[in-house]
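Handout, section B. The chain below has 205 residues.
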Amino acid sequence: MPNLRTPAAATHNLVVELRSILEPLALTELFATGQPLEVELGCGDASFLVEYARRHPQTNFIGVERLLGRLQKLDRKGRRNGLTNLRGVRIESAYFLQYLLPPHSASALHIYFPDPWPKKKHHRHRIINEPFPALARHALQSGGTVFLRTDHAEYFQQMNEVFAASNDFEKVETPAALAEVLTDFERDFNAQGIPTLRAAYQIIA
């Protein structure tokens, strides 16, 4: 296995400069090593993704985020850890899944503490909604998994209802080794006594 934590990695910008928003990414140009790919939609300050990528050098990771400042944190933290199996893309998550991620290229999608849009009139803005399982099915390989976390009970119920209505997915357990790697929001919420609500759904073989 190649060493993914080399000094040379520290000089490489991990934020992808998109040449087009109309054509799928060429994953072979993003990563030096062809290996399984996992994607975090809405990676925040990249606390989770950098640590998870550090623990899993045999997997490539893409963090998707709209805010440049957050992606700059991914870049700084990833380069500080010498990670070459990590990239960041600045774009809206659903658009990324539909147009930029090559079909059936990801083994897992991570969606952690997405904006709950608590007002009923804003529910249509939630990323986990009725069309999402079809987007996820298009992005994932056979047997791929969607991992979900939130602190919002009503949104969590919606997440489960949306996937339960899909004939493509079945509910599975979140691995303990994955659950122990926390996001920045999760760490803050847990410190306040607010529990993490988790679910995982795998494509039915």
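Note. The helical segments are 27-30, 47-55, 68-80, 93-100, 132-139, 153-164, 176-179, 184-191. Compare this with the example in section A.
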